[in-house]
Amino acid sequence: MNPFSSTDSGGKKHRLAIFASGNGSNAQRLMEHFRDHPTIIIALVVCNKPGAGVLARADAFGVPTLLIERERFFRGDAYRPELEAAGITFLVLAGFLWKVPAPLLEAYPGRIVNIHPALLPAYGGKGMWGQHVHAAVLAAGESESGITIHIVDEHYDHGDQLFQARCPVLPGDTPESLAARVHELEHRHFAEVVERAVREREA
């Protein structure tokens, strides 16, 4: 049986693929949120790093995984055949560090969502991910940071914003302590915003 077959969906209308590169705590929150959802299912986890923690998290939830490589993703078909075979209708970037290529932007217009650990448009763009973002926020002496959830387009950390949430930057903060506060916002809001985005874009 094709591990990416869409025949096991139980009739669920929306089939989401999570793209992640790392530990996968946001991916786990999404899988928890949609585990018993009546119309939305996490149907696939896509990862570009062998051994990344998100792969084990997906396995624990019984979600199929797809390990991708750079050449085909950027210069080939971007794995569209696998996504189509899985019946994927929406892409969610949860700590995915590669820029989304044109074939996927064309296949899923307005149906790719990303979460960024800062208040865009500040502290976005190429190289602005993870601890790099939090270090830049602290170096600039900002009094607050937060998260931005947005639709993905052809530019890094660009596209229509769906949601922002803020948290304070405290005296004595380190990139690690600020990251922990930002992660709390991610885990609190990401799944709910994704659900709303999927519903608003129903065909």
From TrEMBL:
Binding site for (6R)-10-formyltetrahydrofolate: R70, N114
Cellular component, GO, one term: cytosol
Site (Raises pKa of active site His) residue list: D157
The entry's keywords: Purine biosynthesis, Transferase
Gene3D superfamilies: Formyl transferase, N-terminal domain
Annotated catalytic residues: H116
Protein name: Phosphoribosylglycinamide formyltransferase
Phylogenetic classification of the source organism: Bacteria, Pseudomonadati, Bacteroidota, Chitinophagia, Chitinophagales
